[in-house]
Amino acid sequence: MDLSCIEEEERYAREYREYVTELNGDERGRRAAWRRMGEGSAFYRGEPVAFSYLPRILGSRTRECFQEIAETTYGILTKVIGRYVDDPEYRREFCFDPRVEELVLMPTGYEELLPVARIDFVFNEDEGFKFVEFNTDSSSGMNETRESLASIAVTDPYQRFASRHAVTTDMRRQFEDWIQNFLRMYKSTSEAVDSPRVAIVACLDSPNPHIGELEAYRQLFEEAGCPCSDFDVRQLEFDGEKLVGRKALAGDGDVPIDCIWRFCIVVDLLDHWDEVQPFIEAIRQQKAVMIGGFRTQIVHDKQLFAVLRKPVTQVMLTPEERCFVDRHIPQTVFLDDADLDIDAIKKHRERWVLKPTDWYASINVTVGASCTEEEWSQLIDDCVANDGPSPYIVQEFCAPTKSPVIALYGAEGDFCADPQDFGEIFGVFVHAGEYAGVYLRQGPYDVIGSARAGLVTPVLWVQD
């Protein structure tokens, strides 16, 4: 699989940058784009999501590559999920909290093993692409991409480029098509009813949470003929027969629920375990259908990267899949692995990135090269002694390629600043095994994420 075709798209990128340059940096357009972002529904910690004024422009050959990545990875991941569910011996390869194992083994009522996922990878010109993580269920970013695209669409450079090229986006796949996939899976269950009441269920600790992404999908469910509400998972009650949503974040409250889209990740459920028992019990008793069953946690947890390379997993893969894993899954080892040479990890910090197995937003992720020798050594010792809910792994570090951005964070200087080269992570969305679009994040640091000055970058596809 060759992603060198990305280089061919530099011609489009240069053309777009020339339009910006001809407008002396287009301060007016940048201000208009930032203003539009603030009027939208993509926010992080109360502020509009930072984004790049320059889109990433990709072509049809890159789409074919991304589609192949999505479909091949999906095939491997569903084999692992199926094996875990069916084989008690294989479960021993994973280190899950007993509560998580029970959740994972709960039946879903439908056959699809991996309804939705986002497969994240970095591309390096010397090494090809390497996976960073797999996200499931609450794979956010769809709305950020949509809002960033809408923000640059009002500007002159975008209009000039779009008038000269056949430009498309993946927004329909990520929104309307997902609703249809969701309802198709629901209707395959024995509990299905006509016009089910859907609940999008999150775990939001902010006293005034921003629910722009949830609300975008809630409205689409309503348009599809399904009444829908957004709830914090702790606002659900279960009487033994019916799951009821009480205080709604959006939509109607005090309503019975037929079907759930789980937008809360397992680590948050563990943090609020006692408070979420009505929700857990309703799923345990199969009194509500949940799209995004807990079995997807097998994929979401980063320890999967270590398990994929084990012989017990390799034997159930095709020769092509084994080659795929060998080339694209970075070497990954638990810090508490008895065979791990801790001294070598400490000595060669530039080779490694340290991660908790189950967290999000790149929290507690540390690249060894960003630390002093003393800092790295102490961090490793602290994580080895960690007794928290999420154990740590060390993973081979692959530096991402960089591409130009015009970063808009909302600061006054952003509107006239020169382009900068930021590293990038691609996230390929997969809906029930089918490619469904791209989420592109860029940032100035080795770890790319919203908490570290990361940006969402609009993605345009050219079909000339």
Report the major sheet.
6 strands, antiparallel
- Report the strand count: 25
> Which regions have little confidence, pLDDT < 50, spanning 5+ residues?
none
Proportion of strand residues: 15-25%
Q: Kindly, what is the distance between the CA atoms of the first and last residues, rounded to a whole number of angstroms?
A: 23 Å
Mean pLDDT: 90
Q: Which descriptor suits the 3D outline? A: globular
Question: Could you explain the architecture of this structure?
Answer:
With 464 residues, the chain is α+β, with helices and mostly antiparallel strands. It has 3 domains: 220 residues, no CATH class; 96 residues; 66 residues, 2-Layer Sandwich (Dna Ligase, domain 1), CATH 3.30.1490. The protein contains 18 helices and 25 strands. The strands form 7 sheets. Strands 5, 6, 20, 22, 23 and 24 form a 6-stranded antiparallel sheet that branches. Strands 12-9-8-14-15 form a 5-stranded mixed sheet, with helices on one face. β10 and β11 form a beta hairpin. α1 packs across α7 and α2 crosses α6. The protein is globular and about 65 Å long.
Compact overview of the structure:
36% of the residues lie in helices and 23% in strands.
